[in-house]
Amino acid sequence: MASFLRLHPSDNVVVAVKGLSPGETVEDVTVIRRIPPGHKVAARTIVKGAPALKFGQVIGFALADIAPGDWVHEHNIGFHAVDRDYEFGVDARDPAAVAAPATFQGYRRANGKVGTRNYLGILTSVNCSATVARLIAREVEKRGLLDAYPQVDGVIPLVHGHGCGMDSKGEGYEVLKRTQWGYAANPNMGAVLVVGLGCETFQIARWKQAYGIAEGDTFRSLTIQEVGGTRKAVEQGLAAVADMLPIVGAARRSTAPASELMLGLQCGGSDGYSGITANPALGAAVDLLVAHGGTAILSETPEIYGAEHLLTRRAAPEVGRRLIERIRWWEDYTRRNAGDMNNNPSPGNKAGGLTTILEKSLGAAAKGGTLRLKAVYEYAEPVTEKGFVFMDTPGYDPVSATGQVAGGANILCFTTGRGSAYGCKPTPSIKLATNTPVYERMTDDMDINCGDVLDGVSIQDKGHEIFQTILRVASGAASKSEILGYGDAEFVPWQIGATM
Hints:
The chain is built from 14 helices and 23 strands. The protein is 30% helix and 19% strand. It is an alpha/beta fold. The strands form six sheets. The protein has a seven-stranded parallel beta sheet, with helices on both faces. Strands 1-2-5-8 form a four-stranded antiparallel beta sheet, with no helix packed on it. Strands 13-12-14-15 form a four-stranded parallel beta sheet, sandwiched between helices. It starts with a strand and ends in a 16-residue tail after the last helix.
């Protein structure tokens, strides 16, 4: 393992791989202060006000003169907005054709989509019906209703804290409406029961009318007030689940092309290795998936801030301009809420070596591979374009992933350098550790170790390993987070607007 990495010839910082001590040499520079693993050391003098460069890009500006060999971090590097040169299409490229399209074993639904899991979901219109949804799922387990249906992965209550005290029109309502429909329509759901209270703002009847949803063998709804209270709602919900279980349980896996996979891309608990190992390796897997006709969704708009110009270069003008529109929305959104686009990285990110949002974004964007950006979607919009796409979401992982699943993601990959504990239902999450110590320390949570990239494994080889793991998990192999039981609590729709 090398003791440091230079990521671009023009960089004036390099990354300490194993940690550096005073007196050690980096290129022709003597280290003058302890440098923690994953952190940056100045490779030459950076004068006050001058940019710090990593990946060949600006990651911040010196707050004071920084001597060669010194530690470069938040004590001497600051953030301010940088004007970007938004070129369009200059780096757009399409994948080469594959000789033998990859396949997986999935659940073919009546609408032609293919699921990687087979759940019966209990959705709620409002927080007031959350307890009833949980009680129904608890009774299903207590009564052993799933024992006769081994093909059913579970009955999952997906509850949230919203649905009332909100405007009945406008952005916040539309986001919740799209999210609920996206989960009901996700191909990993074999059937859905929706439970409401009855008097809430988010009315089930209005929602059903908006999407032309009819009650049937795989969709039921009820409201607590209409059926006569909690006990009756639980019993009626159980009856609905019992009616739908034979339909869900009759599904069988069959061979499907990898083009039916829609992969959500997430990173959380990032560190200084994220943009060097796991994120670019996941990007290589994305390029493979797109070459096989599949779809990958990059998201977390605040975490591509400062790197969006690299994405516009891969997009047609109309697609690139739509991305810039979302960036401008976020600048206004944070300003209205007395926030700052540089409030990310988090304390844990900084402890792992990330200093500014510019640095974090440059590493995070690597998850999106190298191919053409085909489309930009708003939160929870149905993703209809094949290939590499972007969805506007917050950086907060549960909220972001909820939007991707609502958009249709039937599998998810999540990179982490600090050790994020996360799982997702109904969509399985594959966890990628950016460094070997985290993989070894949290082996029950991590599916793939990308730390061996620092030992010489190529990005392309690691990308191939990730792609094969995606196919295996899509075919039914349990991810670590599924084995641990994660996913019931990670349904978090984005709440926009005033709570009244």
